[in-house]
Amino acid sequence: MDVEDMDPDRLDHRVRASRIDDDVIVRVAHQVAAFHERSDPALTEPQDAAERVRELVQLDVGIKLPGEAARAEQQQLEFLERHAERFERRACEQRVRDVHGELGLEHIRAPDDEAVQLLDRIAAGTRLRRIDVCADVALLADELAAEGRADLAERFLSAYAAEANDFDLFLLVDFYASLRATLRAKVELFRADTAPSWAAAEAHQRHSHRFFALALSARRKPLLPPVVIATGGQVASGKSTVAHALALAIGAPIVSSDRTRDFLLGARVDNEPHEIHWERAYEPGFAARVYSEVMRRGEAVLESGRPLVLDGCFRSRKQRATARALASSRGLPFKFIDAQIPESLQRERLHQRSLRDAEPDATWLAIAAALRREWESPDELAPDEHIVVDTSLALDRNIAELRTVLPTWPPGLTG
């Protein structure tokens, strides 16, 4: 056995040894998103995007394929036919790039005290290198789920989407999971056809059938019923901390108004993501633009059948009504988590932000005062939709209480 195959920091070994947590998954997601951002766009004619993908779906490996291959191909072609504009839009947004090509668990090292490393990129110039970044993401998520860690798969998808500002990937991740599984199944069949022994051929055949089964089941029903949760409150109220912990508990992507705002102002993966260009953030109409994009991203998440957490101030009835309408348009329940904090603790947190930003206390106090004046009481919501959380209390206690009114991961699923 190669020394590399025994590397305890390789992601496959970390998963099987239960040496993986949210911090590791977020670091992996950040590294993959940063790698994709640095890579070159790979398609100059967006109108050719769907046709390029069709060529991969119908890839001929020169051997006879079983009936399950035809069924998988038909499913993928039908999806392409219905949603060709999605592939073109992704190309226009430069999401088709020179990607890794084979981003499995064994191709990632995640040491505790070093940067995450992506290993063994497939050869340049191949079609699997010139594809939507979603193909890389779908493969890694699929392998995490195959290891019995659907929770980690969903957490990776959510963290990558947030890091890359790419929530539209939820519209295509099942398709690319199916396509990648089909391609791997065809490779296994080719290996079976050229195997040196009957035993080796049989092993490749088994692997091929497994991958075809994965391809046909890629569109899986989510483990938790979808719900729309908006977390809001005053500046430094701890609403984002609650949103993050709650999203972990229910396996939901988080769409953050702060991250969305920063993206609209020009921040990308390796930029500091907080409080850039505040003066532009308060231009007339900019807040409406931010919340419109937040809702658009949320719509993509919901279309994939997943629950959704929206992280923002939601200080106005209009903003909350927009989030509520997003839920009601799909017949989903809506919850507004109202993060509240004693004023003395808020002032202490604002002081810590001032130290962090090398700004006078008056700067943050003025921002907080302005938003406090704009706050509109959420008395328009039904009692079962409005949940008050006192964030001066321990986070674990608050999440435990929220678990009593929200569906969370089944016991024993997470490691």
Structural class: alpha/beta
Principal-axis shape: elongated
Strand-residue fraction?
A: 5-15%
Largest sheet: 5 strands, parallel
| CATH architectural group of the largest domain | Alpha-Beta Complex
Number of helices: 17
As a whole number of angstroms, the C-alpha radius of gyration is 23 Å
- Distance from N terminus to C terminus (CA atoms, Å) equals 28 Å
Q: Provide the CATH superfamily of the largest domain.
A: Aminoglycoside phosphotransferase (APH), C-terminal lobe
In total, the number of domains comes to 2
N-to-C SSE series? HHHHHEEEEHHHHEHEHHHEHEHHEH
Name the helicity range.
40-55%
Query: Could you give the count of β-strands?
Result: 9
Please state the average pLDDT score: 90
Task: Produce the secondary structure layout.
Layout: H1 11-16, H2 22-38, H3 49-57, H4 67-82, H5 84-92, E1 96-98, E2 108-109, E3 117-118, E4 130-132, H6 133-146, H7 150-164, H8 173-193, H9 198-216, E5 228-233, H10 239-250, E6 254-256, H11 257-264, H12 278-281, H13 286-303, E7 308-311, H14 317-328, E8 334-340, H15 343-357, H16 361-374, E9 386-390, H17 395-403
Parallel strand pairs: 5-7, 5-8, 6-7, 8-9
Antiparallel strand pairs: 1-4, 2-3
Helix pairs in contact: 2-7, 3-4, 4-8, 4-9, 6-7, 6-8, 8-9, 10-17, 11-13, 13-14, 15-16
